[in-house]
Automatic annotation (TrEMBL):
PANTHER family found in the cross-reference section: 2-HYDROXYACID DEHYDROGENASE-RELATED, GLYOXYLATE_HYDROXYPYRUVATE REDUCTASE B
Source organism per UniProt: Roseomonas acroporae
GO molecular function: glyoxylate reductase (NADPH) activity; hydroxypyruvate reductase [NAD(P)H] activity; NAD binding
Domain D-isomer specific 2-hydroxyacid dehydrogenase NAD-binding: 126-302
GO CC annotation terms, alphabetical: cytosol
Protein name: D-glycerate dehydrogenase
Length: 333
């Protein structure tokens, strides 16, 4: 489907010499309508991979490409980019799915969408904290199975979130937004970051200089740092540093976690529970996690609200428009 042919959202008298842009992933209707209105847009009917996307760019002469995580541009792809391509606009904050340095070295601008996912992701991270601590997987199973057995005072006891100590690894925009939500629950907030934040950004959170020092103090641990260079952060050794009965939450990257070690910690009771939105392999995640009653899982949907998904697409289009107008990108990577 292309915007130049039969889209009902483009006025019939609109000039046909608009820049051609490939939207290489499925996007919400509002984003598709804007793309068709402002560009000669080619709308993919499914999320393209890198080979498909670059083939479509070459065939159509597109000058820009709006992408998602399936467009994994490698150095080999970057060495053979179609000559018309000027900008690759990611709809997400993360860009570790592509070789940015090689792409930029080939003369193509790369952008991301760093601000628009913050609150939505922080909301879901705190949802995971609450649901992991309060045994939501088990409670939901009881109700779906018909709840015909009474429960007494010692049964199905969760952990009170209010007043617990939250350790945050990665105190960027999302980490700080989670910290603000935690303060509303009276939680003590510790954080470990590459560098200490200015006091104004800490907002009362306590800086801990090393992960090894943070973990033993974290009754709840939440990851908010990019994957890639960080490698596997949570291993048998690092899980063992958490206090017994800790809760682990990850809305960052599945690559940060040794899932064998995580499963062992959950099965043994070393961890009370985990709340996970990301996995090492997606969507074909390790289903042993789904079988654990103390794991609360969501399918990588931290940004999945109407408002945020529209904002992600609009921000990518803003970056495309800025570059194609001859200006600087809004969010250069």
């Amino acid at each position: 489907m292309t915007g130049t042919q039969d889209s009902p959202t483009r006025p019939r008298d609109l000039p046909r010499d608009l820049p051609r842009v490939l939207i290489a992933r499925r996007v919400p209707a509002a984003v598709a309508e804007r793309a068709v209105r402002e560009f000669d847009a080619i709308l993919a009917e499914h999320d393209l991979d890198a080979d498909e996307a670059l083939r479509r760019v070459a065939e159509t002469g597109a000058v820009a490409m709006v992408t998602g995580p399936r467009v994994r541009l490698t150095a080999a792809h970057a060495a053979a980019l179609p000559p018309t391509l000027r900008v690759v606009a990611n709809t997400s904050v993360g860009y570790d799915h592509m070789d940015v340095a090689a792409t930029k070295a080939a003369g193509v601008i790369v952008t991301n969408a760093p601000d628009v996912l913050t609150d939505c992701t922080a909301d879901l991270a705190f949802m995971l904290i609450l649901n992991a601590c309060r045994r939501a997987t088990e409670y939901a199973a009881v109700m779906r199975e018909g709840w015909r057995k009474g429960y007494g005072m010692p049964d199905l006891l969760g952990l009170q979130v209010s007043g617990r100590t939250l350790g945050i690894v990665g105190m960027g925009r999302i980490g700080r937004a989670v910290a603000r939500r935690a303060r509303g629950f009276g939680m003590k907030v510790l954080y470990q970051n590459r560098n200490r934040l200015p006091a104004g950004l800490e907002e009362g959170a306590e800086y801990v200089p090393t992960l090894e020092a943070l973990l033993p103090r974290s009754q709840v641990l939440s990851l908010h740092l990019p994957g890639g260079a960080a490698g596997t952060l949570m291993t048998r050794e690092t899980f063992a540093l958490l206090p017994p009965g800790a809760v682990f939450v990850n809305t960052a990257r599945g690559s940060l976690v040794d899932e064998e070690a995580l499963i062992e910690a959950l099965q043994s009771g070393r961890l009370f529970a985990a709340g996970l939105d990301v996995f090492r392999k997606e969507p074909d995640f390790d289903t042993r996690l789904a079988a654990l009653p103390n794991a609360f899982l969501t399918p990588h949907v931290a940004s999945a609200t109407v408002e945020t998904r529209n904002a992600m697409g609009f921000r990518a289009l803003d970056n495309v428009a800025a570059v194609l107008a001859g200006g600087a990108p809004i969010d250069p990577v």
